Amino acid sequence: GIEVTLKARAGAKDRLYGSITSADIAAELEATTGLVVDKRKMELAEAIRQLGSYEVTIRLTKDIVPKIKVTVIEKETD
């Protein structure tokens, strides 16, 4: 399957400063794989607010519903 890794700043207990949205995932998916997916086709119950791995379903059509793995890791601070 397809795997996407996003980097985000995180604080205590791996909570993100801000959040990762379906728009962020769609942009990273396009940047890393060249696949263009409408953010509205991503089934993300709510924005991702913690580091970790998540399974996101993309509803391309009624019958084509792939899942991708989204991993959020901590961004290195300068």
From TrEMBL:
Pfam families: Ribosomal_L9_C
Organism (species): marine sediment metagenome
UniProt-recorded Gene Ontology molecular function terms: structural constituent of ribosome
Domain Large ribosomal subunit protein bL9 C-terminal: 2-73
InterPro entries: Ribosomal_bL9 (IPR000244), Ribosomal_bL9_bac/chp (IPR020594), Ribosomal_bL9_C (IPR020069), Ribosomal_bL9_C_sf (IPR036791)
Protein name: Large ribosomal subunit protein bL9 C-terminal domain-containing protein
GO biological process, one term: translation
GO cellular component: ribosome
